[in-house]
Amino acid sequence: MEWIVIDESGSKWFKRGRCGAKGALAPLLWISLDGMQADENSEPTYYNSLYKHGVDEKRRLQIPAKWRPAEPNIEFTLIVWPKSKEGPCLRALPPGQMAKMMREIDAMPNTDPNKTVLKRFIGSESVQVALDKAGRICLPDAMAAAAGISEEATLVGLLDRFEIWNPERYEKVRASDAVMAQEAFKMME
């Protein structure tokens, strides 16, 4: 697997050094080219399992310890994700997954009107959030309202990213997923 490093300024470095630059690098965050995050000596972070956490009066939400970046100052991108018939959720992307999504959108032909729509929607309906010292993120008021999140949230691992759901909405999505799972797992064989 090929790895790049993102330093505190957001500059991308390759394992063999910065493109076109001389000098050594003390890595802050390793990101594989497929978007999975890891530090120099560990495996990638996988966002798996299901968690329910309370949301406090300041809209702070605890992120599971296993899902937290090893390095400080790493930001997740929160996006109001409108793809469920049950209503939107918040999708949280680590830096590598956000970069991957942007590459996929940029690869779309400029003549495709969906390209501008996606850039405009994601650009206006997303925000960067960092974990505080207690491992919490603060959900912006408008985003929490759009996703129907108030006193409690369900965090759902999607392996390479995670979603934050209103618990009642997620139970409906989970029931729908259970119906589709049999067919979906046939693709894995």
Summarize the structure.
This protein is of the alpha+beta class. The chain is 26% helix and 26% strand.
Describe this structure as you would to a colleague.
With 189 residues, this protein is α+β, with helices and mostly antiparallel strands. The chain is 26% helix and 26% strand. Strands 5-11-12-8-7-9 form a 6-stranded antiparallel beta sheet. The longest helix has 20 residues, at 167-186. The radius of gyration is 18 Å and the shape is globular. Residues 11-36 have low confidence and may be disordered.
Notable features of this structure?
189 residues; alpha+beta; Chemotaxis protein chec; 4-stranded antiparallel sheet; 12 strands; 26% helix
Write the layout of secondary structure elements.
Blueprint: E1 3-6, E2 12-14, E3 30-32, E4 37-38, E5 50-54, E6 60-62, E7 75-81, E8 89-93, H1 95-106, H2 113-124, E9 126-130, E10 136-138, H3 141-146, E11 152-157, E12 162-165, H4 167-186
Antiparallel strand pairs: 1-2, 1-3, 3-4, 5-11, 6-10, 7-8, 7-9, 8-12, 11-12
